[in-house]
Design goal:
The protein is α+β, with helices and mostly antiparallel strands and about 150 residues long. About 35% of the residues lie in helices and about 20% in strands. It has a 3-stranded antiparallel sheet, with helices on one face. The chain has a two-stranded antiparallel ribbon with strand order 4-7. Helix 2 runs antiparallel to helix 3. It starts with 10 loop residues before the first helix and ends in an 18-residue tail after the last strand.
């Protein structure tokens, strides 16, 4: 389906469909334990939405799942609240996203530090190559045996 077309499923309809599927599975006591983020651009409008394993769904300017939802989402919302939409650039959004992902990674050291970013715009969907997060583990507090715990 063309991104310019008014027919077919757009990102909002896809999120609704996925939300209904997840809700249906939950009501049959066979839930899919996932959270799904849907991004898209249709008819000049950007879309960002989330549906969780119980079928709840919402749209917002910033969404996240897992540790990102607990630790990274406040950083993303801070960017959304502090920078007006007209002044928000791709670079500002990317910095906020990388900061949020670094915080989520530092809180869950078992996760990998490689991420892959996807963006959707009027030009189409762009999947960036994987990249390493810049995290700093060499704080003095982290080095050597702890002398602070008695």
């Amino acid at each position: 389906v063309s991104t310019q077309s008014t027919w077919g499923l757009g990102p909002r309809q896809i999120l609704n469909c996925l939300g209904h599927i997840l809700y249906n599975r939950r009501t049959k006591f066979d839930p899919l334990l996932v959270s799904l983020v849907v991004i898209g651009h249709r008819n000049g409008e950007s879309f960002l939405g989330l549906s969780n394993s119980v079928g709840s769904k919402y749209e917002d300017e910033a969404v996240a799942t897992g540790f990102g939802g607990m630790f990274g989402l406040p950083l993303l919302r801070k960017c959304v609240d502090e920078v007006p939409l007209q002044q928000r650039t791709r670079e500002i959004a990317l910095k906020a996203l990388l900061d949020a992902m670094a915080v989520a990674h530092l809180r869950d050291a078992r996760s990998g530090s490689t991420i892959q970013i996807t963006e959707a715009s009027a030009e189409g969907v762009r999947i960036h190559p994987p990249q390493e997060l810049e995290v700093k583990w060499d704080f003095a507090f982290f080095k050597g045996p702890s002398t602070q715990i008695q």
